[in-house]
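[Backbone geometry]
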Amino acid sequence: MTSARTPALLAPYVVLPQPGSLTLVTGVLGATTNWLMLRFLAAALANLGRDGMRKVHVRPVGGGSDQEEDEVGIVLVSFSRDWTFWKGEAMRTGIDFVRHLKSGRVTFIDGLSELFTNTHTPNTPTFEVESGQRFLRDPKLDIVERTVLDAIEHSKHENPSLQRKRTLLFLDGLDLYIAATGRAPQEVNDVLGEWREQVYATIIATAADSPLVQSPVTPLETAHTAFVAGLAHEAGLVMSLRGLDTGAARDVSGVIRIVKASGWPKADNYVQASETSQAEALEEREMLFFIGGDGGTRVWERRA
């Protein structure tokens, strides 16, 4: 039986990342990353720490109520899926994206629907006031960079009454942008570095199908390999999804492999000792997962 709740074995890996960290989630055809990204989003919207407890901000005497929630803001940029997809899949996971979008808790940038339509004018706004969505309507890298930076600033300051000290940046399909525009991976990595400096942590999802990352031949494959390899080198945690080596199975959707990469923060980078010990206790592991038709998920240990 599947559940909309995050499976217990997976939960410690999808809670609020460590400050300044990069988490890389890779998928392949038949084992896509969207369900795992949604688990990260759900944990962030619940303000869950690695200990499973909600994080609160303690205010000084005379500063209002003794405690209030240290709200986490989210900027989700998707180059491979539109708002309709994310809204529908989030609902099946128990996330009301529409409510969070209206409250300013979530900022969504659609990098798929109108990026190459050429139906806009230079004065066409990127922000749709009625729905709260933002659209990338020009593939130029400097415009993409500025649009995302503006969204990050909006997330930080949209509601001054809230203690929103942490903004998470979710990037879905940035590798698709590179393939579609022909931009050099290093150029995009430089922009990614600018974005990362402005947010609490970054979670990025890319494709890692064998033709793209193993023995690349074409310029597109070479660029993709360079981009994903660079991300893996900078990441602290890499979560890889793939199908079963033996082929499709009715009750198994795929395999998830979790490894600590070279960017895994050292103990002295953490703010709280309790979070340090919890992070250090995380094990590298390989598990099986099953995604039900209702969006629920099961995760269990893979037997030797």
Summary: The CA atoms of residues 42 and 101 lie 14 Å apart. Residues 141-157 form the longest helix (17 residues).
